[in-house]
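TL;DR need structure tokens for one chain.
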Amino acid sequence: MPMPVYEVLRVSPLSEAEAAELVKSMLGVDELPPGLLPRLIADTGGNPLFIERVMRQLVDDDLLQYDAGARAWRIDLDNLTLPDSIQAVARRRLARLDPDSLNLLQWAAVMGRWLDLEVLAEVSGFEPAEVFGLIVRATRSHVLVSDEQAGKYTYRFSDEQMREVIYSTLEPVPRSERHRRVGWALRERYPESEVAEELTWHFERSGDRQLAFRYARLAGDKARRAYASESAIQHYTRALDFAQQRDDRPADGTDMQAEFDILVAREECYQLIGNRPGQQADLDAMARLAEDLNDVRRRIVVMTRQVELATSLGNSAKAQQSAESALALAREIDDRQLEADGLLSLGQVHFRLSAHAQASACFGQARRIYHELANQSGEVISLRRLGETARRMSRADEARTYFEEALTIHRRMGGNLAGEAAILNSLGTLAIGSDYARARTYLEQSLSIARSIGDRSGQVRATNNLGMIYWILGLYGQAREYLEQAVQIERGMQGRSHLAYYLESLGRVYLGLEEHTLAQQVFEEGRTLSTDIGDRWHESLYELGLGRVALARGDPAGGRDHLTTAVDIQRELGTPSYLATSLAWLGTAYLALNDWMAAQRCTSEAVAQLEAIGNVADSPLQDIWWLRYRVLK
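>> reply
TL;DR here they are.
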């Protein structure tokens, strides 16, 4: 009887990219849930069979579920326990180790998943040649694996389970001492910022909370500068935990000052990724610390930051109260820098409340103070705010001058990427009414930068404005895709103020697609929201939208009423571009009501408004001229 023939297949570990493609195909998605891929790679070493088993375990334990409403997978990695088959492989490999190999690998397990052979030789007491020999032996036993990077071999544990099994063979006291020795060896060999994450871990495990705090904060700063906001938040959270766990908290308040500064940095990260609850929690904690420290300047810092969040959430009353209090306190202690910050915040409130003259005055004063103080960062923000106000008031040339000056200073000073994305977005929005190609270039650059740094608010702004370009060009299907995405993301971030902006854009597209029911729903939601937050400008745009819906549905009287309200508000606010659009549509309503004289008066004024501002409008110019032509005809 012939012997059966077997073919042995060697299954090589998958790279991160290959593992990502495998899991995406299993879930049927283009983007994986946050944290899933790093955990899979760490736990399985990239073994495709183990990846498949872990994914099955997640499903079996109801830790991976599909959220139909959000159209995304939700995952709970904290409660994941690995299948017994993976743990059994690690235990069998451990049993085959000789004493010297186990001793060295215990040091290696303390170091972490990736090994530094020079540090390993220094702390373990083995000679470099002995270390290398034992490493090669462990690699052949599949306890470690090697990778070649830039012509140099590096070594790591085959998977996290293997490292954990070896690590667990150490008793607590020697384990803690080994962490201390590895931490000090790393400090002496490398720049602290380069190995801050590793140092945090080692000094935490050694019981040195003071040094763990220092390096967790340093790791957070490093991640924040690289726009790795989620990682930065994790590091800052650990640093705060270490600070609060210390038994030797200094009596002079320096620990509370350090905690305040960490909260400032973490709140910036939350702001970038659009986590409003996280921002609010940190601002509340900062306010308590500032009071405990009796530090007026820190109280002002909290107030100005509260303005931005409250404005975004549509809480205009709280925003105005905070801005006015911050400005009054800054003037009371005669701090020019904080006075400029307060003026900037108060101007932002006025802008949201459509008080454009007051907003412009505040931004102008802030700019002058920042210029006197040689604070280029503050001057750039003031210039951009001045530009936004000028654009709202249909002063396009003035707005362009402000934006271009802001971009020039920002680039000269080497400003951050988030600031550049914001200025490019402003330039792109300004160009929508006159140069579509340039507008698209600016906005695509802004979107690219925002995506690269995880700036969710910046992504939504650019996405919305790109959608508006497609709307103006009559490409309603593409516009709808962009604008529905913008609205969905903004809803998730709970930004009521910005949502009032994006809903109006989406309503225009539904009108263009003749989906009048959807358009009316969106416009009514937006009008209610704008009224709630005191945004008169957006309220006028929703009245304009509702008037157009009424006209499309054959209700010219209803259209006239909505459009009259829009015209009245826009006259009050002094926004000629938008007033021209509303007047043109109001003329159309009167024409449908057979009131030719009123139609003639409205469309004539619309054209006059348009010509007075250089034929630049938020709506397509041809619409206004076409409506005027219909009346004349």
